[in-house]
Structure formats: structure tokens, C-alpha cells
Amino acid sequence: MRKDTKNMLGQRFGLWLVISYAGAKRWTLLCECGAIKEVAGADLRRRGSCAGGCQCRASVALRFWSKVDKTDACWSWTGSKNDDGYGRFRGSNRSLMSAHRWAWLDSGGEIPPDHELDHLCRNRACVRPSHLEIVTHKENVHRGDMPSILVSRGYPAAPRV
Ligand SMILES: [Zn+2]
Ligand SMILES: [Zn+2]
């Protein structure tokens, strides 16, 4: 049997399950959300973007959490980060957003206008919702300045835990 017609039936790629051969070296995949698509066998074997392409919530969440290293304390983002050290994630609408923002919204949190998320653990790569707090922009800037203010007054800059 030739390589590109190798039987892929029943194989899983993320949330995709190969459910039938579509002919012409292509396979029909079913996502757990019910979405169906056809993918060339060669693309499947490369396990490239074709295998992870569903934009349903479950698929996006699976992709997100595969990039997170959960410890007893922080849940650290292992994917790409911006220059400030915040994780970056391309969500279901394909736009880049902060990883901790995504985690917050996915856990049911809201971000009202003029509010931001502050890392209580001071670890910018952390995406653990319980380590985040909604604050106003003003409060966030104020908190960010606190360590230097304290140090200038003779206090040690102890990290907030
Ligand atoms: Zn899906
Ligand atoms: Zn943390």
C-alpha cells in the first residue's frame, strides 16, 4: 500500500477524529464540536496546521493549555511572549491577545471598560486566573510604581504573593 493512502481511520489529531476516507488521498475529520473537514493525508502526517484547524472553543482551549506549564503556584505560559514578558495567544477570532487575558475570559471573567488585569503574583507569564485581579488602569499604574516608591523610602521591594 502506498504511503499516502495509509489507513488513518480512527486516528486522533487534537480534537479531530478521522472518520472516513474521502478519496483522492484525502480524509474526512470530525471535531468534537461536530465540525467536519477534509484534509490531505500528507498534511495529516505532518501534523501541521491542517490537523489543528478547528476554531471551536474546545479546540482553541486545547491549543491554549498545551502551552501552559501548571505548577502549584503559577501557571506559566510557554508560548511566544511580547517584549514585556506577557504571553501572546491567537484566539478563535485569529487576533493576537494577551495569554492571561484569554485565560481570564475563558474562565468566565469579564473585563469592564477602562479596566485591566493585574498580576498579583508579579509573574507576567502567569495565566492562572486566581493570580489575576481586575483593576482600573490608574490602580494598575499605581501598583506598578509601588516597588520603586517603597525602595526610595527605605522599604525592601518584597514581591507580592
Ligand atoms: Zn471543533
Ligand atoms: Zn502566578
Explained architecture:
By secondary structure, the protein is α+β, with helices and mostly antiparallel strands. The protein has two domains: 3-54, no CATH class; 69-152, Homing Intron 3 (I-Ppo) Encoded Endonuclease, Chain A (Alpha-Beta Complex). The chain is 24% helix and 26% strand. The protein contains four helices and ten strands, in the order ββββααββββαββα. The chain has helices at residues 41-46, 57-65, 99-106, 137-152; strands at 12-13, 16-23, 26-30, 36-40, 68-70, 75-77, 88-90, 96-98, 115-119, 132-136. The strands form four sheets. Strands 1-2-3-4 form a four-stranded antiparallel β-sheet. A two-stranded antiparallel ribbon has the order 5-6. The protein has a two-stranded antiparallel sheet with strand order 7-8. The chain is elongated and about 65 Å long. Residues 155-161 have low confidence and may be disordered. The structure holds zinc ion (2 copies). The site of one zinc ion has 6 residues, from loops. Residues 74, 121, 123, 126, 128, 131 line the site of one zinc ion.
The percentage helix is: 10-25%
Please tally the helical runs, counting DSSP H or I stretches of 4 or more residues. 4
Name the ligand types.
Answer: zinc ion
What characterizes the major β-sheet? 4 strands, antiparallel
What fraction of residues sit in β-strands? 25-35%
CATH third-level topology of the largest domain: Homing Intron 3 (I-Ppo) Encoded Endonuclease, Chain A
Q: How many extended strands?
A: 10
Gross CATH architecture of the largest domain: Alpha-Beta Complex
Mean pLDDT: 83
Shape: elongated
Radius of gyration, CA atoms, in whole angstroms: 21 Å
How do the helices and strands follow one another from N- to C-terminus? EEEEHHEEEEHEEH
CATH C-level class of the largest domain? Alpha Beta
Gap between N and C termini:
59 Å
Identify the quaternary structure here.
single chain
Number of domains: 2
**Structural class by sheet pairing and helices:** alpha+beta
Strand neighbour order, sheet with most strands? 1-2-3-4
> Spans of 5+ residues with little confidence (pLDDT < 50)?
155-161
